[in-house]
From TrEMBL:
<feature type="domain" description="Histidine kinase">
    <location>
        <begin position="143"/>
        <end position="341"/>
    </location>
</feature>
<dbReference type="InterPro" id="IPR011712">
    <property type="entry name" value="Sig_transdc_His_kin_sub3_dim/P"/>
</dbReference>
<dbReference type="InterPro" id="IPR003660">
    <property type="entry name" value="HAMP_dom"/>
</dbReference>
<keyword id="KW-0418">Kinase</keyword>
<dbReference type="InterPro" id="IPR003594">
    <property type="entry name" value="HATPase_dom"/>
</dbReference>
<protein>
    <recommendedName>
        <fullName>histidine kinase</fullName>
        <ecNumber>2.7.13.3</ecNumber>
    </recommendedName>
</protein>
<keyword id="KW-0067">ATP-binding</keyword>
<keyword id="KW-0597">Phosphoprotein</keyword>
<dbReference type="GO" id="GO:0004673">
    <property type="term" value="F:protein histidine kinase activity"/>
</dbReference>
<keyword id="KW-0902">Two-component regulatory system</keyword>
<keyword id="KW-1133">Transmembrane helix</keyword>
<keyword id="KW-0472">Membrane</keyword>
<keyword id="KW-0175">Coiled coil</keyword>
<keyword id="KW-0812">Transmembrane</keyword>
<dbReference type="Pfam" id="PF02518">
    <property type="entry name" value="HATPase_c"/>
</dbReference>
<dbReference type="Pfam" id="PF07730">
    <property type="entry name" value="HisKA_3"/>
</dbReference>
<dbReference type="InterPro" id="IPR050482">
    <property type="entry name" value="Sensor_HK_TwoCompSys"/>
</dbReference>
Amino acid sequence: MRLLSYLHSQTSLFTKVLVANAAIVVIGSITTVLIATHFWNGQGHAPVWEFGLIGAGLAVSLGVNYALLRVAFQPLFTLHATLDKVRRGDFSARVPEVAGDPDIARLTEMANLMLDRLAEHRQAVAAQILRAQEEERKRIARELHDETAQSLTSIVVNLVAVEQLAGSSGIDEQLRERLRMTKEVAQRTLDETRRLMMDLRPSVLDDLGLVPALRWFISQRVLPAGLKADFEVSGLSERLPEELETALFRILQEAINNVVKHARARSVTVRLSRADGHIEGVVTDDGQGFHVVHMVGKPMRDRGLGLFGMQERAALVGGKVEVESAPGRGTTVRVTVPDRRGG
């Protein structure tokens, strides 16, 4: 009983129906053979040809049975393949329409409706999370600027004044050295705080727009890391809507950070262009590359938050992110979003 229960739980519906139909055909054929044998033996003949014909008929019956079941179950196989694509992260996958079978057509319609609702819910949640994340970045950057940076600036100014007073009043050399070291630590902390503020929410993005912000980020992130950088812009002489500028900046920022941290590249090229109703940003490096298929095939939690975040941000503004790479041949990250004029 436990074996039957185990086989029932481990066997697909198609296999169960196939085995049941095959059992019916085999039992019917065996019964036919036994009856035919009984009559032929009664007449003193060896039923060799009859056994052969019955065996051939049995094989044809099983083959036809298998083919018919494959055709009948094809919509379920398609549904399973579609849901498996969704499980692997392809949220745009939908079940193709099947004509002729009202039950299967209804099942397909319900499955696609469920996937549409799931995509809408997922996109709404992602938008809320990213908006909240961006607002929190702004708040932290503002507090760092208004409180921490101001206090550190005051400390550095006062330490400079104390150091000058100590030098003019002939104070002990060890104490002056301590003052100098303290001033340097305060200055480094102030510089690090300013860098953190700019990473959280660069004011140049709000004040001047996407192109100056990317140029600033490349100068602050790529060049200090020892990489050669090239930044090309075409067709972007005016500001974009805020959400579009933020999405493009964050996506390209993440791609550039990946180059600096993981690519082992010597140079990186960043191109930003507007043409044919789209805005395209491309980050190309000459680093070690990786297997894109292996990365995409991994479960969502193992892909790395960088790639997942880029795809989410692009989807929220109606765009997409494509990654081209191969071991030893560098990597290209391309984001394309619909053009929306703003100011």
